[in-house]
Amino acid sequence: MDTQLKIGFIGAGNMAFGIAKGILSGNVLPLNIRVSAPSSRNLGRFQELGIPVTHSNVEVVCGSDVVFVAVKPHLVPRVFSEVSQFITDRHIIVSVAAGVTLATLEELLPENAVVIRLMPNLPCVLQEGALLFTRGSRAKDEDAALLRTLLHRCGLVEEGPEAWIDIHTGLSGSGVAFGAGRVLRESGKHPAQLRSEVCTPGGTTIYGLHTLEQGGLRATTMSAVESATERAREFGRKSGSKK
């Protein structure tokens, strides 16, 4: 991979941050990455890594070879209407927007645009992620190979059909919130804070957690631990009575 490859992020949320941290652990220098967001709220943590930031999406596109579009799904049409005239066939556009299909992405972009749809998950921050991507109609083998090389430090990277993306979103993208032991331990954050970071309002993860709560997962888990504990005590009492 060209060490001078320029990487851009439109959007500065948790997914963008996780991918950026993974990329930085490879051969990409912080100065070769640029991140844009409409406000400064999430940009500080990128600056702490030495990554230049801006409020201009056009600046990111014009200065990048690979552009990760990591915004909420409903913002994708607005972002592309702003930057599409600056996208050329030298760009690889990687969409991280949940639920936005390749057909929609290619419809919103110029005819010659190379598009890849990617679904990562938050453990990318710890280089323990699970990332699935699928290629658009104009993405070549070398584009897929470049993306794999770029993301390999983020965790497991696989290519598959687009039908798998939504399944991956529910299982690995959202599923991290249902059992994120290492993220919790190494981040040092309170579980409630980690949950709020993973759960985009109205997104897939919060819907999954709502279903778990409806099914009484918390109470069931507590009961399971209590039952196992009591059973262990029973074994102890039985072994004690045999002495």
From TrEMBL:
It catalyses: L-proline + NADP(+) = (S)-1-pyrroline-5-carboxylate + NADPH + 2 H(+); L-proline + NAD(+) = (S)-1-pyrroline-5-carboxylate + NADH + 2 H(+). PROSITE patterns: P5CR. Its EC number is 1.5.1.2. NADPH binds at N57. Keywords: Amino-acid biosynthesis, NADP, Oxidoreductase, Proline biosynthesis. Homodecamer; composed of 5 homodimers. This is Pyrroline-5-carboxylate reductase 3.
